[in-house]
Amino acid sequence: MFGPWLRNRAIATQEVIEELIKLAREMDAATKRGEELGLNEDEIAFYDALAANESAAQAMGNDELKVIAAELVTKVRKSVTIDWVVRESARARIRVMVKRILKKYGYPPDLQDEAIKMVLEQAALLSTA
């Protein structure tokens, strides 16, 4: 009577464990990559958001993206408030700040919208951590 239920539960548990192992490996790889690039874990998250577009990464280069990521972490930490995710005016202010930083360093204009979106997602994660 309970045979299929237990078997399904065991399979679900095994899948969860496999996903956790995969996530741990990805986190370890990100940490190692961050160490190789000289970035802390917050900076590597922003770096990855900026480098997600390969053409931007090639145009900018690692060193420039590292500088942008470090500045973004610093400015975002200073700018986020507890409720910034739900307040449109606060999100708009941070969006403008991110856009100015990207423009300051010459991040390709045609790729900025996607980069801003990804940076804001990372900022939301940073502010809840």
Q: How many domains comprise the coordinates?
A: 2
Q: What would you report as the Rg, rounded to the nearest angstrom?
A: 19 Å
E-strand count: 0
Shape: globular
Q: What share of residues is helical?
A: over 70%
Q: What is the percentage of strand-forming residues?
A: under 5%
- Count every helix, treating DSSP H or I runs of 4 or more residues as helices: 6
Order of helices and strands: HHHHHH
Distance between the terminal alpha carbons, to the nearest Å?
A: 44 Å
Helix- and strand-based class?
mainly alpha
3D architecture notes:
The chain has two domains: 1-37; 38-128. Helix 1 (3-37) crosses helix 2 (41-51), helix 2 (41-51) crosses helix 4 and helix 4 packs across helix 6 (112-128). Helix content is 81%, strand content 0%. It has helices at 3-37, 41-51, 54-60, 62-79, 88-104, 112-128. By secondary structure, the chain is mostly helical.
